[in-house]
Structure formats: C-alpha cells, structure tokens
Design goal:
- With 154 residues, the chain is of the alpha+beta class.
- It is built from three helices and eight strands; from the N terminus they run ααβββββαβββ.
- It has helices spanning 8-24, 34-47, 118-124; strands at 50-51, 61-62, 68-75, 98-104, 110-117, 126-128, 133-135, 149-150.
- Strand 2 and strand 3 form a beta hairpin.
Length: 154
C-alpha cells in the first residue's frame, strides 16, 4: 500500500479502522493512541496477568500471587528518543508492587522490557510538582540495578 498517494483523511480513516480491528481482537481496549493498550496487552500476555478495568487507579494487572503490576510503555523514534515514562501518580500510596516498563523502537519492536520493584522506582524517579507525579526515565544507572528483572524474553 502506497501511503504517499493517500489523502490525509484517508490515512486517518485507515488508522481508525486499524484501531477498531485491534479492539475487536482484544489487543487494545480504547480508541486512544494504541501504545498504552498494546503495552498492557503484551505484558499481561507475557506474565499471565489479569488486566484490571481501565478505571482502576494505581495498577493495570495482577498476577496469580496477587502482585499488582503497573504497566508503562514508551516508543522511541529517531526524532524523539526520550525514555521518559508517563507520570506515576500517587507513588507514596503504594498502589502497585512492581512496574513493568517497556521501551519500543519506532516499529513497535521491544528494545527493553523490565520489571521494577516499587521501592526501586522511588529511588530513581523524581517528583515533578507541576504534574503532581513521579517521573521515571529508563536510562543510566537504573538499567544496571540488580533488583530489576528483564522480561523481554518471557
């Protein structure tokens, strides 16, 4: 399919159709940007998690042992290679036990997939008052922390 020959509206309609089909297949659960839903589906499938309702605050999935997992994904591209995850709200309420963080390349290939204990998130994340949340960037020393497990090959 040659996208360069398509009108902008046709491209958007194709995007909408793809999101609808992914929704029908259970890969995404909303009509929003598919990255978050895809990441949750991928991690839940890999770790055999029971995904929670979209309105559930603090964690996205729970395993058979009752461990609550918050799931975050980030797609890096040549124009934006930031590894900053979306805001982690109410960190001190300890609504999750572990954070599953997945970094994708521009074609949705997994570069990094990590399972990070709650206390480790707190050591590396910084609180940003203007968003009232903790922000975690997946680069540098955190990637070498022995308490973090890779889940890329699960």
């Amino acid at each position: 399919m040659d996208f360069s020959k398509m009108q902008e509206k046709e491209l958007l309609q194709l995007h909408a159709s793809i999101i609808t089909e992914l929704n029908n297949r259970g890969v995404v659960r909303t009509q929003n940007n598919p990255l978050g839903d895809y990441t949750k589906w991928l991690v839940a499938t890999a770790l055999d998690l029971e995904l929670q309702n979209n309105s559930k605050a603090g964690y996205d999935g729970i395993n058979h042992n009752g461990v609550r997992i918050q799931i975050k994904g980030r797609r890096v591209t040549p124009k934006n290679n930031s590894r900053q995850l979306s805001a982690i709200r109410k960190y001190f309420e300890k609504d999750f036990d572990e954070l599953a963080a997945v970094i994708f390349d521009e074609n949705f290939n997994v570069i990094e997939a990590l399972l990070i204990p709650h206390e480790v998130v707190g050591e590396y994340a910084s609180f940003r008052e203007h968003v009232n949340a903790h922000i975690l960037i997946l680069k540098g020393p955190i990637l070498l922390d022995p308490r973090i497990r890779t889940i890329k090959n699960i």
